[in-house]
Amino acid sequence: MNKKLWWEGSLPFEQRRSIEEFEEHIERTLGEFAYTYSANTGPISVYVPSNLEACGEEGFELDTAAIAFAPPFDHDDMINAVAHTFTPLGYELLTQDERDILWMDKANGGYITLLFLDDGGAGLAAFSGCRPTDGTTKVGQARNIPDWEHELTPNTP
Q1: Which domain of life is it from (predicted)?
Q2: Which residues, at least 6 apart from 11, have a Cβ–Cβ distance to it below 8 Å?
Q3: Local confidence band at 1 (pLDDT 50, 70, 90 cut-offs)
Q4: 70, 43 contact by CB (below 8 A)
Q5: 114: Cβ–Cβ under 8 A, 6 or more apart, which residues?
Q6: How many CA atoms lie within 13 A of 121 on its CB side?
Q7: What is the CATH architecture assignment of 3-139?
Q8: Which residues pair with 2 in a beta bridge?
Q9: Average pLDDT, stretch 144-156?
Q10: What are the pLDDT digits (tens) for 68-115?
């Protein structure tokens, strides 16, 4: 018997928003947020690249690129800005302490994480959870990495 993972949504797998919708809406919004919010911070960059993997029998799971924000920035302002951006997209606050804040899409699965780092910076990433495909994403196919990820990744053309 497969144990349900905490980040899986409550909707049956077939009814969840597709991995392509996650890429189009959540991943794109993450990149837009990074550029917009970076006006309030030091430099931004990608510190972990995105990763798309097959999951289950017919699904895919995407870990977006993790974006690093250098100080200075106000923690509370950043928390509020992330919540203001992603709550309308179906994410609800799940947990919060001084260092980690998680918002979860309880219906479709997946979460947004904001982490305040020991060096004074912050990291922001989104994780889709296992989602169905509309048929355009296939195992073994090269993924179209968003422009913002290329632009923010050190040492890439």
Answers
A1: Bacteria
A2: 107, 108, 109
A3: very low
A4: yes
A5: 78, 79, 82, 100, 101, 102, 122, 123, 124
A6: 15
A7: 2-Layer Sandwich (3.30)
A8: none
A9: 86
A10: 999 999 999 999 999 999 999 999 999 999 999 999 999 999 999 999
